[in-house]
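WARN retry 2 of 3 for item q-0093 after timeout on previous attempt; input resubmitted unchanged.
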Amino acid sequence: MHSRILLLEDDRLFGETLVDFLESEGYEVLHCMGAKEAIDATYTQKFDIYLLDVNIPDMNGFELLKQLRESGDETAAIYITSARDKEALVEGFGSGADDYMKKPIDLDELLLRIEAQLRRIYPTGRVMVGEFFFDMQRLVLYRGEELVALPKKLAELLGFFLRNRGKVVSTEEILREIYGDEHPGTGPLRVYINRLKQLFGKDAIVNIRGIGYCFEA
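OK item q-0093 returned
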């Protein structure tokens, strides 16, 4: 799942390390150095999960999340902090956190915790694509509450692209996935890809000449 993460971390080097790691795993990350910048971002952008430091210069991270919760923001939040006492743990969950990690953190463990939160948020495998949501189990696309009708093969193609979001997949892989060993050639595939570009934008799918495609929406 390619999801959007807001990272609040005032240690630039550590923050850049987290950004590089998470982006290498296919996530889109906005790194904020201060609380005001982070709060402003939540007003203008949609995120799937917050990663929040606690000890930041312009506001306590606990207070920041408490304010967001009081405003009705229920976005999943994981604290990443050097605080180790029980009182900090109690305060963190009391402010509305969904999880809590103590520095120094293990990056693989962080990834597992993020994925666990996303599974809880999208129990049916619902994936966000811009203004759309795609149900990965039912292969159904929605724009808000509106159902977007897709032919079965096109829905299967979109599901395949979303499972491989940000990765280059060969044309042969795609055809085998959608049609099996007996496929009709690349003509129908090009039609389906053009249809997805109409939905998600012409830059949503990149044609890697001589190799295949990369879904980047």
